[in-house]
Design brief:
heterodimer, A: mainly alpha, Formate dehydrogenase/DMSO reductase fold, about 70% helix, globular, disordered N terminus, B: alpha+beta, Alpha-Beta Plaits, two-stranded antiparallel sheet
Chain lengths: ~350, ~350
């Protein structure tokens, strides 16, 4: 208050003008609806997270099986067969989970009444149909070759395995990533701000698919010593997944906050921790050949846990993100290419 | 202005279920060979208020079929009905400066559409216990109570509704094709197709669509499709005592709104603007737009809504980069592998 006494009158007025301006800015009313969300709470919950998880495993192991069939010939016979069997097994829970999530389960087939690529969910329904058919065909052919199929064995044995493997790759790869694209093509900030969610789910899909295959292989009979492909693949897929996760969180900015709040942060921490444990155990397995099977099994298990944590963490965060009004306003603030409407 | 509104779409029925946006929009006025010539003179049918008169007098006759009409009526169910003829896009212009917060629109909407009550809850949010649009609330009067430190409290009213976007994220997201543009250019959820997947709920940047717990399907404002077909204006617009909710052809409403915003500004409300009347880059204009005086957030509207599909390709691209890249890594590893079992 010193200026009121000592300062010359003109300076006094200038300061008081500024003061009035400041108080006018202060007078800007707070938003009356500051606690009311703008977006609706997404309807998706555990069924969708579980579908994303099993669909990812099925897609990842199908890719591994097809690549192994195409590029390794007979050298990794067990790997190819196990991967194809795992892919089929992981596919089985997918349709029930997907159908159960619908508000009108009896109408699940309505997704297949049109082909509409502008909707990732429609494309996904078609992808799951094609992938399911291919994986089932491969599994049946496998049984036919082993002579365990009572009917149509002769016909199935004549199918060229390589061509089937090549034909199954596009649908499997689409299934691995479309789930992330589906979430990314919404208005929910935590899902849609970063362009990397599809890539993240893709990496996780390949990682969990490889881990599931590897786990079953260890149980069935193990691998010979040396740097076998599953170990190297797990190392590269796992580190890429961690890197993409970092990129996703960084490019989401403030929109990623719901992932770090409440119980959700345990899932995110679980994702990172389990992935790191998986990578470390893979390395430990190569360093200590005697304990190779044990370390390999732990690594695969940890990777599978990480994949589940990731799916639930992301799906759960959608509800918190949609409820976060400030986050929504920030994601929908005027930006280049989208000036919006207002008087500002 | 209202020329040709009479009679043309009389044979059009939604039952075809195939009237997706392209077909509806491409069907030119009078291009439908099945349509009978208009029985009314276009000039004579021009009503003082949009659609005050029924454009489909034939419908009244259909309700009382004569005995010789029965045979063709039975056969009609077996042929595919032609898509409805495109109509001039119809919409809402909601003028917040005229809204008195009476909620007649909310009540009229609930009543006409037979929507259930949302339960007795005190929100503690001024005189607004509805709070937002939902599967069972298709009009919501926002009742914003603003505390101005030196001037006490003031109210901001606005009747919120589905924006009937001209490029609607819900319509683009819908995997079943349940969400369509009807012949009035309105975004409409076909309840006999919707399977309740919930994608539209997450896609809408305004939080309009909700999935009903009662029937598991997505619901929102139909812009009173049933009333429009019978030549009536929507229930909310009909009930609005101050004409804050105006219904009519969007082109006319837009001109009216632009004149109105000038008028309001001239009277000293310098912050008045139109929310959604024109394209705004990524987000195209809305067929239900608003005249507001405060920033959008004050009415709980997003300032610059996102259009999810505009970002879809980049997400697919990154996903493909990851998938193909990691597959190449996998293939190289397998080629280099020494062999196992």
């Amino acid at each position: 208050m010193a200026w009121e006494i000592g300062a010359p009158p003109d300076q006094q007025r200038r300061r008081s003008d500024r003061d009035v301006r400041r108080s006018a800015a202060h007078e800007r009313p707070r938003d009356a609806y500051r606690d009311i969300p703008i977006l609706q709470r997404p309807t998706w919950n555990h069924e969708v997270a579980a579908y994303f998880y099993f669909g990812g495993i099925s897609a990842g192991s199908a890719v591994l099986g097809s690549l192994s069939e195409l590029f390794a010939g007979d050298r990794y016979h067990t790997l190819t067969r196990v991967a194809q069997a795992v892919s089929f097994a992981a596919l089985l829970p997918c349709p029930p989970l997907l159908i159960d999530d619908l508000g009108m389960p009896s109408r699940f087939h309505h997704m297949l009444r049109i082909f509409k690529p502008s909707s990732p969910m429609n494309l996904g329904a078609w992808t799951l149909t094609v992938h399911g058919s291919m994986v089932t065909l491969q599994a049946m052919r496998m049984l036919a070759v082993a002579g365990k199929l009572p009917v149509a064995g002769k016909l199935l044995r004549q199918l060229p395995g390589g061509a089937l493997a090549a034909a199954s790759l596009p649908a499997a790869l689409t299934l691995g990533g479309y789930t992330g694209v589906l979430l990314g093509t919404t208005s929910v900030p935590v899902w849609s701000t970063s362009p990397l969610l599809g890539a993240l789910f893709m990496a996780s899909s390949l990682n969990t698919g490889t881990a599931a295959t590897s786990l079953v292989t260890h149980v069935v009979g193990g691998q010979e010593a040396g740097h076998d492909p599953p170990t190297l693949l797990s190392l590269s897929f796992g580190s890429v997944e961690l890197a993409v996760l970092g990129g996703y969180l960084a490019s989401s900015g403030r929109a990623a906050q719901p992932l770090f709040r409440g119980r959700g942060r345990l899932l995110l921490a679980g994702t990172v921790a389990a992935t790191v444990i998986g990578l470390s155990c893979e390395v430990a397995g190569t360093l200590v050949p005697k304990r190779r099977r044990l370390f390999g099994a732990i690594a695969s298990g940890a990777t599978l846990v990480a994949g589940a944590c990731l799916r639930w963490s992301i799906v759960r965060a959608g509800a918190a993100s949609a409820a976060d009004r400030e986050g929504t306003l920030e994601a929908m603030a005027p930006r280049p290419g989208a000036p919006g409407w207002g008087n500002g | 202005m209202a020329t040709g509104r009479g009679g043309e779409g009389a044979r059009g029925r939604l039952g075809a279920g195939l009237n997706r946006r392209g077909e509806v929009r491409q069907a030119g006025r009078g291009a439908d060979p099945v349509s009978p010539p208009s029985s009314q003179s276009p000039v004579a049918s021009s009503p003082p208020r949009p659609l005050a008169q029924s454009p489909h007098p034939e419908l009244a006759v259909q309700a009382l079929p004569r005995s010789d009409d029965l045979q063709p009526t039975l056969l009609e169910g077996m042929v595919i009905a032609p898509a409805p003829v495109a109509h001039e896009p119809m919409g809402f212009f909601t003028d917040a400066t005229l809204c008195i917060g009476c909620k007649a629109c909310e009540v009229a909407c609930k009543q006409w559409n037979a929507l259930p009550a949302d339960g007795m809850k005190w929100s503690g949010q001024s005189y607004d216990n509805t709070l937002h649009l939902s599967a069972t609330t298709w009009r919501h009067v926002s009742f914003a109570e603003q505390e101005l430190p030196n001037r006490g409290v003031r109210w901001l009213f606005n009747s919120d509704v589905c924006k009937h976007c001209t490029a609607a994220p819900c319509q683009e997201a819908c995997p079943t094709g349940a969400i369509i543009y009807n012949e009035f250019g309105n975004v409409y959820v076909q309840q006999d197709v919707c399977n309740g997947c919930g994608y539209c709920v997450a896609a809408c940047p305004f939080g309009v669509l909700g999935r009903s717990q009662a029937d598991g399907r997505a619901h929102k404002c139909t812009l009173c499709y049933d009333r429009q077909k019978d030549g009536l204006e929507p229930a909310c617009a009909k009930s609005c005592p101050t004409d804050s909710i105006k219904f009519g052809p969007v082109s006319e409403l837009r001109e009216l709104a632009k004149r109105r915003v000038q008028e309001v500004r001239g009277r000293g409300e310098s912050g008045a603007y139109l929310y959604g009347a024109d394209d705004a880059g990524e987000y195209q204009r809305l067929n239900a737009f608003f005249l507001l005086t405060e920033e959008p957030a004050a009415y709980n509207l997003p300032p610059a809504p996102t259009r999810p599909t505009a970002r879809m390709l980049s997400r697919y691209l990154w996903s493909a980069v990851a998938g193909i890249g990691l597959s190449v890594v996998g293939a190289l590893t397998l080629v280099a592998g020494k062999g196992g079992r």
